[in-house]
Amino acid sequence: MDKIKRALAGPWVPPQFGKAPYLWMLSLCFFLWKYVYIVPGMLELLALVATMCLFVPLYFLSYWGWRRATVLLTTCLLGVAWTPHNYGASTFFIFGCAMCAGIEKPRQAYLSVAAVLLLACAVAPLSDLNFILPTVVVGIPVGLAGVMDAKVRRSRECLLRKQEEVEHLARIAERERISRDLHDLLGHTLSLITLKAELAGKLQARDAQACQREIKDIEHSARHALSEVRAAVTGFRQTGFAHELATARASLAAANVACDAAVEAFTLPAAAENVMSLALREAVTNIVRHARATRCEVRLSLDAGMIVLRIADNGAQLADGARVRDGNGLTGMRERVSALGGQLALRVERGLALEMTLPLGAPA
Question: Residue 57 is inside which H or E element, if any?
Fold first, then answer.
């Protein structure tokens, strides 16, 4: 009933079929051609009106998939009923061949076309060649073309759905990327600004010039963070490791943490450099916030074709058997490393040690 109401309310055919179904209705002119030169009797006229009132709604309902077997059978029976009286009844069999395109399984659709044509041949003796010739000559190509066109249309619709699904997954991945990047950016920068603001407050009374320098550094950090956030949202942020190491030194110095860095000279792939830069930022942020450390070691080396980044501190040691809980930062870091075919390990030593390994051939 829902399909009937929808069809009557319009549009009468689904939008993907365009205007062609309305033009195909002109084929009924072959059925009505007899009455251009022969005036029908009252009984035949009533039968003609009843046929049109039955067939036209069924024709449009066939495009909505409403009881395909019922529609197809009724159309063919109309052709059978009119064959002895009007050779234009071949039109109903041709419409029946076209309706077979609505059957989803191609094999069944082709068999249905054959069944319609066999039925037409069976009733052909009731009429003449003007009936059977157009039925076969037109019905075969119309039926076969309709089934093939429907198959292509369904494949195209399936492909469009898959494309929509891929686009949806891409949007989800992009939102996750932005959330990870913003966490890394803002967490580090806000920690740095907080430390410098505290330092500026302490220096305000005893060293005004030093206080002003810290305030200028706060302004510079805030502006730099704003530009990085904008770049992260648009997807073009690529932080160089040397720049990130210099920023890390400044953050650690502001927290009174000595930084001991040893970086081997070799060319980093762009993707690996970005991931390691973000890992360094996240690790330094955690050291400044939670470790209560006085020393931090940063080592970047190349070992047997693998890039190894090690960041360790001498902060408050965890209890034996304690497990480091993965927050948003560590989770995002693991996802990035895994995407490049690397590994990430956390170990409790004098403090906490992070070791990341990435293949030198990581994609750029």
Answer: helix 42-62
